[in-house]
Amino acid sequence: MAARRIAFINEKGGTCKTTLAVNVAAYFASKKQKRVLLVDLDTQGHAGKSLGVDPRGLARNVFHALTDPALPLEAVTVPTPTPNLFLVPSWKDMAEFPSAAAGDPQRARRLEHRLASVNDRYDFIFFDAPPSLGLTSTNILVAADEIVVPVATTYLALDGCAEMVDTVNDVKANFGRQALRITLVVPTLYRKTQLADEVVAKLKEYFPRRTAEPFALSVTVDEAQSHGKTIWEYAPWSRGATMLQAIAEAVDRAGRTG
Ligand SMILES: Nc1ncnc2c1ncn2[C@@H]1O[C@H](COP(=O)(O)OP(=O)(O)OP(=O)(O)O)[C@@H](O)[C@H]1O
Ligand SMILES: [Mg+2]
Known about the structure:
Elements lengths: L3 E5 L8 H15 L4 E5 L5 H5 L11 H6 L10 E2 L5 E4 L8 H4 L9 H6 L8 E5 L6 H9 L2 E7 L2 H20 L6 E8 L5 H13 L12 H8 L4 H4 L4 H19 L1
Parallel strand pairs: 1-5, 1-6, 2-4, 2-5, 6-7
Antiparallel strand pairs: 3-4
Helix pairs in contact: 1-11
The structure holds adenosine-5'-triphosphate and magnesium ion.
């Protein structure tokens, strides 16, 4: 069976893409015994760091697999402390990806092509996207089937969300990816204020039945990441874990029910 391919993406920075990608991936691996691959594509390498894997210490990462045809994705995949969860790490090299691939007319499909050899080995493949538009994000959207958009509950974040919808529609049209869809929008960094509640209400209006319950601010979630641990390792009984479990279950349902 082919893997479900789910991207956490928003061109805006700091909206909890990495936090959600890492903890949702770890949830499927450790709580549902699924085989999971998390592909980091951000130059910051935060997905690795959040899992206790230091991408600086690795000779090869996603950049090398995307630019060297002799290097399969398996060759840059590493295990993580979470059983069943494997990581394709990323690091600063990824900044060179657009120029390294510039001459290739198929450059937007490189990730999709590289996934062909691992697709049957996993139940889920998650992508942690960088906070910018460009060739890397296009590769992610071309390779993914389901999109989860974490949106900070601030006024300008709504703008970014509308931009994401346009970008997804462009990729659908330009790359023949009609099945690609935003399955879930997650309001993040939520604090109970009038403005935040207005933003959540707007999201529910734009994305009826596809807006998750808000992911509230939680010091424990931040702490877990700073220790390089998933919430399931660091504080499995915390409110942060309860919220992340609800989001992981929503991701699962949203992709299955359409
Ligand atoms: N629920 C939460 N409560 C408090 N802090 C959080 C929460 N979720 C995430 N954070 C913190 O917010 C910061 C940004 O989160 P994260 O790295 O997941 O965002 P991102 O969208 O991946 O950022 P970037 O765009 O830079 O890749 C991190 O320091 C993270 O620990
Ligand atoms: Mg990130």
